[in-house]
Design goal:
The chain is α/β, with parallel strands linked by helices and 261 residues long. The chain is built from eight helices and ten strands. 33% of the residues lie in helices and 16% in strands. A seven-stranded parallel sheet has the order 1-10-9-6-2-3-5.
């Protein structure tokens, strides 16, 4: 795992977008794992601008999203399919047929989840998986006690997640209490993981995720087991880390980061 500290939220998001852009340029038919959330919105703005102004070409890319609410169809404004269409897919030249989000209204949710993992495998696996970090340390909707070998599946949401996300609904009580999510095992099979974390509010859980023990109580800690995980953070999120001098040294001195400095 490499932790890269940037001076501001904007710089952290910009660097993350540049890392994704490099992946797409180096492998035009990349399979991208994508995420939703407030942190991703300005990141997707940057990728859309790169497409418009720099010719960043997504035409051969395929994508798989981490999760979707159970019981909400893709044309509903609260669905993650709607979110992705709005914030990214409609603004770049990706073929919408090559974008995949779990179907939260499938008749057989178990079969839907199994088919999702099977399609990822059939397309050669995910090249780069983008991740955010939940306030209780979850990636996707892998809530505490999620198995570190879990696959894409239906998952009950915690009261904390419900309380955090339900205000985004016009009627908070309408938010589903279950979701489909890639499993931790599915995520860890990606060739590279990129987690973006900003804000002092995430400082404690970030420190537990990257410097604490690997535990199912903090699903993001499983990224410590990944052979190529990058965690990009701002100063606020990094404020509780104990090895910041080393993390800054890596960014300033390792050759792989030279082009991004």
């Amino acid at each position: 795992m490499e932790v890269i500290i940037q001076p501001t939220r904007e710089k952290a998001i910009e660097l993350s977008a540049r890392i994704i852009a490099k992946q797409v340029r180096n492998k035009p038919d990349s399979v991208l794992g994508l995420a939703t959330g407030r942190t991703m919105e300005p990141l997707y703005d940057i990728l859309a601008d790169m497409h418009k102004n720099e010719g960043l070409d997504f035409s051969l890319c395929r994508s798989f999203n981490l999760d979707e609410y159970v019981g909400i169809p893709g044309d509903n404004k609260y669905s993650y399919r709607w979110y992705m269409n709005h914030w990214l897919f409609s603004r770049i030249n990706i073929d919408i047929r090559n974008t995949h989000v779990p179907n939260g209204v499938a008749k057989d949710l178990g079969a839907e989840c199994a088919a999702y993992d099977a399609l990822i495998a059939r397309l050669g696996g995910i090249d780069m998986q983008l991740l955010g970090l939940g306030e209780i340390g979850h990636i996707g909707f892998n809530e505490p006690l999620s198995s570190l070998r879990s696959r894409t599946r239906e998952k009950a949401l915690t009261p904390h997640t419900f309380a955090q996300n339900s205000p985004l609904f016009d009627k908070p009580e309408d938010m589903p209490k279950r979701a489909l999510t890639m499993g931790i095992g599915t995520i860890l099979e990606s060739r590279q993981c990129l987690m973006v974390v900003t804000g002092e509010k995430k400082a404690d859980i970030l420190a537990r995720s990257v410097e604490g023990p690997v535990t199912s109580m903090v699903s993001a800690s499983a990224l410590q087991l990944h052979p190529s995980a990058i965690v990009v953070v701002d100063e606020g999120a990094a404020s509780k880390l104990t090895h910041t001098d080393y993390y800054r040294w890596i960014f300033e001195n390792e050759p792989e980061w030279q082009e991004f400095r």
